[in-house]
Amino acid sequence: MLTIAISKGRILKDTLPLLAAVGIEPSEDLSVTRKLIVPSISGDVNLVIIRATDVPTFVEYGAADVGIAGKDVLVEHNSDNLYEPLDLNIARCKLMTAVIKGRALPSGKIRVATKYVSLAQQYFAKLGRQVEIIKLYGSMELAPIVGLADCIVDLVDTGNTLKANNMEPLDEIMDISSRLVINKASMKMKHAEIKALVKQLELVVEARR
Fold first, then answer.
1. Domain covering 93-175: architecture
2. What is the pLDDT of residue 93?
3. How are strands ordered across the β-sheet holding 93-100?
4. Which end of the chain has fewer CB atoms surrounding its CB within 10 Å, N or C?
């Protein structure tokens, strides 16, 4: 029995076809059910539905054997206790800085609103800029509008939310996609099962390129 941790939202939507292609289909509609653990139809896999930011923690501590998480979450989690064997090439977007349209960053200390505290600090440190990080968990675009921050660091896909709030992307920090991560102990204890899953997913991902 393998336990796979995934999160609701775009990652789940993009992940389900990949899992179906390797014979893993949930026994219930994950967009409707309120259950947090859903077995596969075949009965040999449990799907654990959790917050995106919790996926690497569940996998690292063995509550799940395998997880699917965005590169942004994995870098922010910053753990050496996970294997990351495969870029699934799904849920692609960019981590970017963004400002109110037409407004430049101040020359001095910058106030940055983000939930990606470590990534933002690392990025601005490389630029030699002094920043004050204001951690938020949502509605990032509101921070510059109400004067809480000079800019934001957030994921940008279509850019429509920025445009709707009179904001524009400034600089790209990194490309983001979802990755397969594996618990190190599970890789030893369930080596054959996990190796087979990784190989099957590799073939599916390659075929979709």
1. 3-Layer(aba) Sandwich (3.40)
2. 96
3. 131-135, 110-114, 151-156, 93-100, 167-176
4. C
